[in-house]
Amino acid sequence: MQMMSVTSLNTKIKSLLEATFMHVTVEGEVSAVTYHTSGHLYFTIKDDKSALRCVMWRSNVAKTKFRIEKGMHVVIHGSLRHRKSPNHRDVKAETKRRGGKISRRKRKDRPDNRDTPTTL
């Protein structure tokens, strides 16, 4: 077995993950949201077993038609990225929309019965 440095292993992990997950579409509930003063959007989406950090750059935030809020169900499209420092993964979101299967079920319970997801 070849010994490698922490940096070398992280570089290999980054290459493998980013090449494998270049285009992902993920549905979940927003559990944390930060609109940074730079215009970037940082948020976390979750389901009943996991959570995933996400970032959307200012240029993509400006193209969206709604403001993301905690508790909202969203579908995001983007790419997985692995940051070496601090060592974590997140989705670099390019687009987002309200909706998805979870959200449609919950919307049917609303008094106004809005069942059509808003797309970007």
Number of strands: 5
Spatial order of the strands forming the largest sheet: 1-2-3-5-4
* Category by helix and strand content: alpha+beta
**Full CATH superfamily name:** Nucleic acid-binding proteins
Q: From the 3D coordinates, which CATH architecture would you assign?
A: Beta Barrel
Helical proportion?
10-25%
Top-tier CATH class: Mainly Beta
State which percent range the strand residues make up.
35-45%
Largest sheet: 5 strands, mixed, barrel
Task: Provide an overview of this structure.
The chain is of the alpha+beta class and 120 residues long. It has one domain: Nucleic acid-binding proteins (OB fold (Dihydrolipoamide Acetyltransferase, E2P)). 22% of the residues lie in helices and 38% in strands. Strands 1-2-3-5-4 form a five-stranded mixed β-barrel. A hairpin with a 4-residue loop joins strand 4 and strand 5. It is elongated, with a radius of gyration of 17 Å.
